[in-house]
Amino acid sequence: MTGISPGNTFPLGATLTPDGVNFCVHSKSCTSMELLLFDDVNDQQPSRRIHLDPAKHKTFHYWHVLVDGLKPGQIYAYRAHGPMLPEHGLRFDSNKVLLDPYGRAIATPEQFDREAGAEPGDNTVHAMKSVVADLTKYDWEGDTPLRQPFSKTIIYEMHVRGFTRSENSGVSPEKRGTYLGLIEKIPYLQELGVTAVELLPVFQFDPQEASPGLSNYWGYNPVSFFAPHAGYASVNDPLRVLDEFRDMVKALHRAGIEVLLDVVYNHTAEGNERGPTSCFKGLENAAYYILEPGHEGAVHDRSGFANFSGCGNTLNGNHAIVRRMILSSLRYWVEEMHVDGFRFDLASVLSRDIEGNPQANPPILWDIETDPVLSGTKLIAEAWDAAGLYQVGNFFGDHWKEWNGRFRDDVRAFVKGDPGHAGTLASRFLASPDIYGHRNREPEQSINFVTSHDGFTMNDLVSYDEKHNEANGEGNRDGHNENISWNCGVEGPTDDPEIERLRNKQIKNLFTVNVLAFGVPMLVMGDEIRRTQQGNNNAYCQDNEISWFDWDLVETHSDIKRFVTKLIEYRKALPERGDLKLSLSEVLSRSRVRWHGVKLDRPDWSDHSRSVAFTIENFDRWSHLIFNAFWEPIEFELPKPPRRFQPWLRMIDTDRPSPDDIGHGVSLGGESRIQVQPRSAVVLVSNRN
């Protein structure tokens, strides 16, 4: 039998040494700790139990041991013994097998059962276990994060599994829905022209957190903040998961595409008091979670879980132990996995203190903001939470950019034809100075999007008036009721060519605003080919054709894909700001913007106005943009380009069929007026000779 020695308190997790593996885990309140070693993840009992003697294996609140002779691939877990006193925030259950909070890889047994972690009794055969990993052997071949400036970034939000899971993906069966499958489709991303992929959660998550008969597809229910999700690997080998994830990152970098991770540091898959115990609850519940009085409501009762995440619990991000874990996790994904940045799900949760109250200077956000390892990464905040905290325009610090939810809503409303949105469209197009101008931000502060994983796809936004979530098994009660959508005359699919033409045009209008607006555009996987979720606006549990990328649509809607590709090319060809860090006000001051209505320099900001026209005047190029959301054609006066400038070229007209809708640069000669067709957008340019 291999020997043991006291080991060290640092690093946390399982660390290879010349003699074996050093294990260290934090638990302040447990009375004793066991390290469990397994020969196979499916074993009903560990092959070895190592009882940690507090006199030898505990320093302050850290339990540690060095086990000789262990190697990478060793499966392990913990049992923590202590009081079960929920009213005091203590939930120790020595029957439960616990993951290592710092574990780098996870093995899932064939009989994995989430409910076994919530029910009384031993759950050994049903529990995920941690796996010792050696991170030093991988050959990165000189790869490093790309560090592209935000000013040149175009984000593509996507799902690793959904991108290639469909049988028509052309990917070999063993690679469909995997990190390696995504590698095979990198040429598609290059052709589209995006510069960064934002991957829906890839931390190991619990797929069983969903209604019966369904699975959690999106992955917003982490069980680990270090281990990549094993379900996205092509083989059932926890260590190969690490290699395949890194292979994907390396391949994307070689293609010039950055990798951003959608990260969930606001809650875990352990849920509320009725949820399973798989890690944090069983190690130090009161440290890892924000607690509140339980159902009895006693003043000193701490049996309940605060639910600012809307998912049953809230990670206690500003507790010292959790702060360290989050920061270590972020550094790990940058240093060891080479990712380029992060989008923080419900980031406003991290501004709450250990009692759940919003605070002006949250320690964890200060840690992230000032950390030198993270200084070159992209940090994007979803600047709200599920309990009403909304911080768009006022999120913490200088490093963070923000999902601009008001861009989404106002652009949808304008293109739909709702009254009162001409002025808001103008503001959103210019990077929302009404939201960000007061803090002297650069335009890239605003991450502009019209759709995201949460809500209607672009196709469904113009095809459904109402959500249709019946497949989720919740009586269509889930998901947002207000979608600012319009079905163009028929609910759902139709063979009517006029309605289809209108839907195509509306999609092109939405893309035109999204891609060309000041700020950072974010597109969603499959919108460029009119991917549909059949009206489902909350497909978190639909791991099937409802959510997957349908590769047949690449041909079916090749006109839309071509339009988006050309639109991205057009954006990339716009004049550069260079490496200057110009504020929003400075950018706007260097480009004269003239606002018009049907008459030059006479904009109509009234509630009944449904059109916006403006000229952006630079030294080398004038651009004239007209958005007509009215249901009749409107004739607009055109400004006259200055001497030594070419006549106006029509670069974009969303009313025209492909390929005349974008990219041909048709001269308007000396025309002083232009008729813009109903519900369409026109972009004209005039370049200096």
Which features characterize this protein?
Immunoglobulin-like; 3 domains; elongated; six-stranded antiparallel beta sheet; alpha/beta; 689 residues
Number of helices: 16
Assembly state: single chain
> What is the CATH H-level superfamily of the largest domain?
Glycosidases
Query: What is the mean pLDDT?
Result: 95
CATH architecture heading of the largest domain: Alpha-Beta Barrel
Based on secondary structure, the structural category is alpha/beta
Widest sheet: strand ordering? 13-14-15-18-19-20-21-22
Distance between the termini: 83 Å
Radius of gyration: 27 Å
Largest sheet: 8 strands, parallel, barrel
Shape: elongated
Integer tally of domains = 3
The CATH topology annotation of the largest domain reads as: TIM Barrel
Low-confidence stretches: none
Count of DSSP strands: 30
Beta-strand percent range: 15-25%
The helix fraction, in percent, is 10-25%
Structure in words:
The chain is elongated and about 90 Å long. It has 3 domains: 128 residues, Immunoglobulins (Immunoglobulin-like, Sandwich), CATH 2.60.40; 367 residues, Alpha-Beta Barrel (TIM Barrel), CATH 3.20.20; 104 residues, Golgi alpha-mannosidase II (Immunoglobulin-like, Sandwich). With 689 residues, it is an alpha/beta fold. The protein is built from 16 helices and 30 strands. The N and C termini lie far apart (83 Å). The protein has an 8-stranded parallel barrel with strand order 13-14-15-18-19-20-21-22. A 6-stranded antiparallel sheet has the order 23-24-25-30-27-28.
